[in-house]
Design brief:
1 helix; 7% helix; elongated; mainly beta; 4-stranded mixed β-sheet; single chain; 166 residues
Length: 166
Amino acid sequence: MASFDPTIPPGGEGKITIKVHTSGYEGSIYKSALVNSNDPEKNAIHLSIKAVVKPSVLISPRYVDLRGKAGQNATKIVKIDAALDKPLSLIPGKFSLKGKMTYRIKEVKKGRSFEVYFTNILTSPQTYYGFLNLKTNYPEKPVISIQIRGRFVKENEAKKTSMHLE
């Protein structure tokens, strides 16, 4: 979003303000804006902004991929850590894989560190995709969305797949 002085007299000065909304971004970002003028020598100027956006919450891994034989218990853990100097709280939100898997949240260090355990509960071969949303008390990151994929095959298919990979 940009704002600027609409008219600047010849030889005068003006002000251009550019705001970059970093919500949803982490790491290095680069944004640019093109400023047009009626100056015959410099009718267009590129302004660029480089920044490093520090995350408010650290999530590892960012995605869950459960694989195995149908009926097999498979569990993956996602670690969530506060990156700000204030306590973090997690509240379960929407979970799209009820009946296919379960999850539980364990607070490892009060207000600082959490583990989310995902466990397959299907007994039949299936491939599924879904997510878990966790609400936080951080306005910088109000929702954490963890994407989940599961692929469970018949035991004889698992053997074929592993023999094919060797």
